[in-house]
Amino acid sequence: MLESLITSKTRLRLLIKFFVNSKNHSHLRGLADEFGESTNAIRKELNNLTKAGILVKHSDKNKIEYQANIRHPFYTNIRDIIRKYLGLDMLLEQILERMGKVEQVILTGDIARGSDTGTIEVLVTGDNLNTEYINHLITRIEELIERKVIFTMASGRISTGGLILFDREAGI
Fold first, then answer.
1. pTM of the model
2. For the chain, what percent of residues have pLDDT higher than 70?
3. Do the domains 2-77 and 87-167 sit in the same CATH topology, yes or no?
4. How many CA atoms lie within 13 A of 71 on its CB side?
5. C-alpha angle with apex 151: 147 to 152, nearest 5 degrees?
6. What CATH number does the domain located at 2-77 have?
7. Gap between the Cα atoms of 46 and 38, Å rounded
């Protein structure tokens, strides 16, 4: 559906890259390699998004790095649209509904790095999680968001890695 509003596939991929996780950053050649596209097509979109203030750029040694402008007035709106497009809102809602006492929900893998490969890896932490519910949930979520979902369960808390979607202790 978002493809009908954002007709440039390169622009959509850039928005996913930088807005699924505000910590994601990259340079032109890295993006060209990751997307398998020409540097000219990516440069054009980076320039447009930077000129609009949606992305910011800064020099890192002899490379120019880009990342989402978290101070842009539409940053939160764009982030929420991208996360909704990827189905992360439905994913989180379904997990929290009947999983038990969930402590954290953390995105890992490609999607946390802003690469929409069609697979979403999720780490769910907590004690006495309803693993039976997860087995039924996988099929339901995959149909809802049209992506493959891989769940990993852990007890306790995880302090590093990934994009935190929910953290009971931190109030996120």
1. 0.84
2. 99
3. no
4. 3
5. 155
6. 1.10.10.10
7. 13
**What CA–CA distance (Å, rounded) separates 19 from 123?**
20
Residue in the block written with tokens 């009971």:
168
The structure tokens listed for 40 are 């000219």
Q: How crowded is residue 67: how many other Cβ atoms within 10 Å of its Cβ?
A: 18
Strand order across the beta sheet in which 148-154 lies: 148-154, 119-127, 101-108, 163-167
For the record, the structure tokens of 160 come out as 């590093």
**Domain spans of the chain, in order of start:** 2-77, 87-167
Which CATH topology does 87-167 take? Beta Polymerase; domain 2 (3.30.460)
Residue-wise pLDDT tens digits, 30-57: 999 999 999 999 999 999 999 999 999 9
Q: What is the pLDDT of residues 130-142, one digit of tens each?
A: 888 888 888 888 8
What is the CA angle 35-33-10, rounded to 5?
30
2 phi/psi in degrees, rounded to 5: -65, -25
